[in-house]
Amino acid sequence: MELTPNQTRPSTQTVKVGNIEIGGPAFTVIAGPCSIESYDQFLETARFVKQHGASLLRGGIWKMRTSAKSFQGLGAEGFELVRTVLKEVNLGLTTEVTDPRQIEEVHDFVDMFQVGSRNMHNYALLKELGRTKKPVLLKRGFAALIDEWIKAAEYVTNGGNPNVILCERGIRTFETATRNTLDLNAVVYAKRHSSLPVIVDPSHAVGIRELVPSLSLAAAAAGADGIIVEVHPRPAEALSDGQQALTFSDFDEMMNRLGRVLSAMDRPLQKA
Description:
Layout: E1 15-17, E2 20-22, E3 28-32, H1 39-51, E4 56-58, H2 79-89, E5 93-96, H3 100-106, E6 112-115, H4 123-130, E7 136-139, H5 146-157, E8 164-168, H6 184-193, E9 198-200, H7 202-206, H8 212-221, E10 226-230, H9 248-264
Parallel strand pairs: 3-4, 3-10, 4-5, 5-6, 6-7, 7-8, 8-9, 9-10
Antiparallel strand pairs: 1-2
Helix pairs in contact: 1-2, 4-5, 8-9
């Protein structure tokens, strides 16, 4: 998978996620709430982001939080409402799994498993995901080298599951103005030194709602295969990461601007 600097870049493989393919010429937008809080909140958000160009949903069923006192997600109590919403909107879902035992619990209704930054080095989890055939979205650890990130993906691919998508979500640096520092260098480098698709999570990278759209456009211009962004109907009421969630109007405006950037690059937007 890894190349020396003077080698030719491998062709990017495509990864089929539900009814769409990530890694081809089309740019994929994955959108939804950080945490699935209720049926109404998830349905309202899912309908809106689909109507405005998202081709895949994101939504946390379990949430790993820095504070044990923070909202940890609905867990198993949310399974039925998630199934109902997915059927109503006819979109696939990517959600984070934090424990190997969770894989089987959500396997029947999740289209892609997400490995969060904190779990990039959780090799037991990665090995278990290697035994599945469902796609895996592997987020870069907040202090991980690019090489470590790519090698973490190999725990999944070597286990027999080639369907891995890398996700740059910002790294921890000396800068404190933003939540993390988005490393677009890593996007370009990983695209050159790996055959895996690469997407960007600007929401976690910056942690500030007003900056997410600009970084989304930058990700598209840098050649990323897509973005994953947080959207909430009322961010001030969000149970997690409300400060970085786009409002509906924010998402609509961003998608309009994104369309112009993609047009300039002769790239289509992925259709649901």
